[in-house]
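Form P-L/3: holo structure prediction, ligand zinc ion.
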Amino acid sequence: MAFSIISLFRTYPFSSGSLSPLNLLSMPPVRTFRISSSLSTSQHDHHPKQQQDQHPSFRDTSTRWKPMCLYHTHGKCNMMDDQVHLERFNHNFSEQLRLNLMEFKNLRSQQFDFFLVLDLEGKIEILEFPVVLVDAKTMDVVDLFHRFVRPSQMSEQRINEYIEGKYGKLGVDRVWHDTAIPFMEVAQQFESWLIHHRLWRKELGGPLDKAAFVTCGNWDVKTKVPQQCQVAKMKLPKYFMEWINLKDVYLNFYKRRATGMMTMMKELQIPLLGSHHLGVDDAKNITRVLQRMLADGALMQITARRECNSTGKVEFLFKNRIR
Ligand SMILES: [Zn+2]
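OUTPUT (holo model):
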């Protein structure tokens, strides 16, 4: 059977908000990523060519998998005219998220227009805040918001150790240090990004407009965002009051339990791309699970909701859920 590959992407310019460009001329990003690119592919033994052959639904037209330029995701890449850099690093956030026409036959109408796939990194404080914006009707990846986050209540030495341990092995510690900003600023830039995409109205200050967060588990929105807001001494934004835990939808739709992203990907035969526990790669891989579930006919519904009062109690809306 011949699969016709179609490109579903609108190429939106990155909205980097009020970021001021860094002078990166003295520190070419290429050096920063060299480990990430080879490590992530060899460690998981995922040769991109093989992946494409084995998984026709996620075949894409690129010849090989490339790591994202993480300066670019921050709107700070100044090597866009360097062919070697462009060949080594991916500057198109949706490149590995292309779908083919066969995927659409079971697609059903959704109650949301957009999904925001969020996958935070950082146990003590949030270190990375990646969000993939997916069109619910076309499964098109519309945009990516990606920020590294600098902890606000940690000594410089502790931050350095923390980042070395977490991102050093992925080869992205340097870019983390070059780009990370405090959570308060990330939250402001994220709100500008939401407004830019007409997903939220600041003057109303309420929930998202016809959009919902999609996470793998409840931890991100239930626990970590409120904790980080407390640390940053800011009020929890109203758009963090409800979310879709993909694992609960997965359980109810496929009638089988998946305890995490890796299990879902394995069961759905979706190849892992990039580095597991690099937030931006995890968010993209979760997006691939979401796309597959939408393609299979799953209905995405809110699975958990937080009360807007002082108790902030969370109600879980699915009877069958992963605990
Ligand atoms: Zn770049």
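COMMENT: Residues 214 and 314 are 16 Å apart (CA to CA).
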